[in-house]
Amino acid sequence: MEIIKVPIAQGPCEPNWKSLGDHFKTPTWWREAKIGIWLHWGPQSVGEDGDWYAKWIYMPRHAWAPYTNVYEDHLKRFGHPSEFGYKDILPLWKAEYWDPDKLMALYKRAGARYVIAQGMHHDNFDLWNSKYQPWNAVKIGPHRDIVGGWKQAADKEGLRFGIAFHGDYSLWWYQPAFLSDLDGPLKGVPYDGAQTYTNKNTWWQKMGLDLKDLYGIDLKDDVAYPTNFTGDPFDYRMDKPLAHGIPNGDLKKDRDFAVWYATKWTRRVIDAIDQYNPDFIYFDGGGSYPFCGHGTGKGLRADATPRVIAHLYNSNTAKNGGKLEAMAFTKGNEDARAVAMNVESRFPGGIKTDCAWQTEVGLGEWHYKAGTFYDTGMVIHEMLEAISRDGNFAINIPLKPTGELDPGGLQVLTEMGDWMDVNSEGIHGSSAWNVWGEGKVVMKSGNLGPEQARTPYTAEDIRFTANNGYVYAFLMAWPVDGRAVIRSLAEGAGNISSVSLLGSPEKLLWNQNTNGLVVNLPETKPCQFAYCLKISGQNLQAIKLAHPKTK
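The structure assignment produced for this chain is given below.
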């Protein structure tokens, strides 16, 4: 274990997983918030070609077929990556129409009670006035503090604020930038990451910038080739089992670089925590956590991640009079008590109450892609799939490079707000009920798109929440015959005293029998997409949350 020699705030937490687990408790605000907005935005949106743009532009062919157009699109729009690489994309990101106050008001009305701001993505570019990364949004591109702008807007609307850090990937992620075309007119000409620059008049050299701070260094000597290696370097960068271009084995001669990078990463994250006092921090992790010796930060096992989490927990505890109100998210850890859990583009099969968790999902690509498919119903349905299982739900609606929403994105947020105006009492502050739902249909995993929108929900598909002594039954579709039957509330499941339809002034006719709670609905629908019955009675209480460390 490499000890990263960066000081942290003093307090009860030591920079190790056990100490974090001994002191972390899920704050009440998180359990009650339920809905978040992911602000997954940065210079990669300039390509309007989806996620991982900064990597795919260096990969003419690879195993992930949906992305094979990125290299060609970049070639047509900007030029060959030996002449115009990702570093040259950065100044093109202007964010000229970005209005964080306007957007934050939309997010709040759509139901969000917290936001996750991108701090650094895999492209290794900091979106704040970073002390330790000169490649940042204040110095290059929009010349604005993006994280600071989101923070001020969130505070104005009373939303909780978190920052996401994905930069640990950058230890290996840019490796294709050190390669070259394998065929064609520029075969063998190194991409910009591999070039030796003798001309000191480039725009970035005039600014005193070093490409090592952006792209890292070439790690090809540390890659252990698979036994079936074909001789094509693009194969080993992407093909299984070497997914995503991770060096296969320990970083050997370049271990000093890995320690240098992890130390710099630690300083960057602590800098952001100190500047913006976030309510939570988030690490992508790729099935693990940063610098754990496998997955992200491949080859280096260091205490960088528990170190920065301990800094957040200690500094937050001091600012809150001895009470920890902050959180951290990872996709892996060594002590499940220490952090909250993030589940990307899916949800558990049943109710999960043993830890704080959220389902996060992108509407289309995580970074903006022209032609994104928008559908409000699928967003609301996936939200109900997560919340009925006692989780939270965070949705990313990508912003264009200018900082604006597509008309479709604006419509989704507006329609979510309309839906929340009717149904929010069954969402915010709720927990799971005794069962998460009934019916045969469940939305498939993955980023939201046409397949998810076609999920064939019927009125037999129902999702439940509980709040303030009431059970809320969400019909995922309106009954064709105007009659809802809720089998989980048949005789013996409690004595029902009242049933109403949120958003409707009409008195409902209902009866409870051995088949279920049968409700005759009014002719007029009170909203779109999903419809909520509010039910009261005796012995209908929600399950007691099993998480032993909720405040």
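Interim note for the steering committee: The first helix runs from residue 17 to 23. Confidence is low (pLDDT under 50) at residues 229-249, 543-551.
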